[in-house]
Design a protein that fits this description.
The structure is a single chain. This protein has a seven-stranded mixed beta sheet. The chain is of the alpha/beta class. The protein is globular. The chain is built from eight helices and seven strands; from the N terminus they run E-E-H-H-H-H-E-H-E-H-E-H-E-H-E. Helix 1 packs across helix 3, helix 2 packs across helix 3 and helix 3 runs parallel beside helix 5. 45% of the residues are buried. It binds magnesium ion. Magnesium ion binds next to loops.
Length: 242
Amino acid sequence: MASRGAERSTQFPSLFLFDIDGTLMRGAGPQHREALEYAAARVLGVRTSTEGIPVHGMLDTDIVAAMLRREGVPLVRIRGAMEELMRSAERRYVRNGPGSLTGKVCPGVRALLARLQRRGVPLLLVTGNFARIGWRKVELAGLRHYFAHGAFAGMSATRAGLARLAIRHARERGWLNGVPANVSSVVLIGDAPSDILAAHSNRIRSVAVCTGISTREELEAHRPHLLIRNLGDLRLSDFGAD
Ligand SMILES: [Mg+2]
């Protein structure tokens, strides 16, 4: 069952922003974590792991920093190497990533993306993945062609900042049709509390899905505008579509 507020907009949103892990797909495999570990070893010579780091909803930049900080690497050194750490992890993932992710796509995702694309609504990624890792995942899942652009780890220090960048890009391209970004015009869909917080901080609409690690109760506590089991439960009439 979905929790739906009484509030309903009359104008269909101009822009949809999607998280990747736990939202578009689930269980993408260990290769992403392995690529971050590989980069730490290759670039800074530090053997470390993501073990014990609550990676759910975190940006790759923060995950890498947490891994290295735990091994005693000074923050200034981590920051100085971040660009290279990113490139190294991206190359590793593209070379050693999973063969296919088509079987990992969450319920309702393909149908929803296809319907939104038919309506001509731009779809953008807002994800904690490094850019080439995120693009590679959606490509391996067969979803690449739905997305016009993306905001990724390394482009801003926070997920809210990434959402802001995506919105700015859409505005500059004229995709917002001149309307302000607000709860009627922009939707951010994600599976973690950090996605909900990013939406609230940008004053846009938050849709939370229970296809990730967070429980329904955890997500509900952050008060998304809409909380659904999976994207198969999303009705375009929730946004004022006829
Ligand atoms: Mg996620």
